[in-house]
Design brief:
The protein is built from 10 helices and 2 strands, in the order H-H-H-H-H-H-H-H-H-E-E-H. With 282 residues, the chain is mainly alpha-helical. The protein has 2 domains: 110 residues, no CATH class; 97 residues, Arc Repressor Mutant, subunit A (Orthogonal Bundle), CATH 1.10.10. A hairpin with a 5-residue loop joins strand 1 and strand 2. It starts with a helix and ends with a helix.
């Protein structure tokens, strides 16, 4: 039993909460006998409710929560995070807040709270960060400092590479807003995702993750005083499989036999051949 749940249920005014059932009508609210208890949860009426009726019931329920004596304890309990992630009460109205309001607040807290230094990283997160694709991004990030070249060496387009960089920060417990490239690579080496002897090209203290765009994608983050990253013209989105280089035989070490000029064989040239008829026409 969590502390917040105990604080709510053992509150001295818990029995007088607005969403308590009416003694004479157990399916109705004690604060408003005309309002069903389904207003705080989901409607159990066959066929559901009309949208206008449902929204009106939610509005009345939130008004009752506003004058409830256990409002603060109820809201604190519903906003509690469970160990596996998510909220202890993901649905319904609790503490005057809808489910959408609580989830938005959860996202805001996760985005603004800095990552705890030295906090243990779950094994499943390390396993996910050790996928072949993410390892390729880490190896490329160790060799290159430019986002274009990192994506090229990792074998993917720029947008995908930036997305993996941001995900790696989250998986390894780093703050995407402040974590630098050196921080990410150091964490990768600490968890065995990158060889401890890997040569890392030095870079400045710039955030490694890409900043979010308004359309949900992620772009390269450029600090005010950071040098502008070069865009390589003609660089493909991903490296193409190169053709194997022709094998050049090693020169012979014995002396070559010099033949007379008369016995020398003609060397064929890649030139157009004119037939006899073409020669006569010319």
């Amino acid at each position: 039993m969590s502390t917040t749940y105990r604080d709510l249920t053992e509150h001295r005014h818990y029995a007088y909460r607005g969403c308590a059932p009416d003694p004479d009508q157990p399916t109705q609210s004690a604060a408003d006998p005309d309002l069903p208890l389904d207003a705080w949860g989901g409607s159990t009426v066959d066929g559901g409710q009309e949208p206008a009726e449902r929204l009106e019931h939610q509005r009345l329920a939130i008004e009752i929560c506003g004058r409830c004596p256990v409002l603060a304890a109820c809201r604190s309990y519903a906003a509690t995070e469970i160990p596996g992630g998510g909220l202890v009460e993901p649905d319904g109205i609790w503490g005057g807040q809808r489910s959408l309001d609580r989830h938005r607040a959860l996202i805001t807290r996760r985005a603004t709270q800095p990552a705890q230094a030295g906090a243990p990283v779950p094994a499943e997160r390390i396993a996910e960060a050790g996928s072949p694709t993410k390892r390729a991004v880490l190896r490329a990030l160790a060799r290159e400092t430019d986002a274009e070249l990192v994506a090229y060496r990792a074998g993917m387009d720029l947008r995908t590479a930036n997305w993996h960089r941001a995900v790696l920060c989250t998986l390894l417990g780093l703050d995407k807003e402040t974590a630098t490239r050196a921080d990410l690579l150091k964490a990768a080496q600490h968890h065995g995702l990158l060889s401890a002897g890997a040569r890392i090209v030095p870079d400045g203290h710039w955030p490694v993750a890409a900043a979010p765009n308004t359309n949900g994608t992620r772009q390269r983050r450029l600090a005010p005083d950071r040098p502008v990253q070069l865009v390589i013209p003609g660089l493909p989105d991903y490296p193409r499989t190169p053709h194997p280089a022709p094998r050049i035989p090693a020169p012979r070490r014995h002396l070559a036999v010099v033949r007379p000029a008369a016995a020398a064989r003609p060397v064929p040239l890649l030139l157009p051949v004119r037939t006899t008829l073409e020669a006569r026409a010319a």
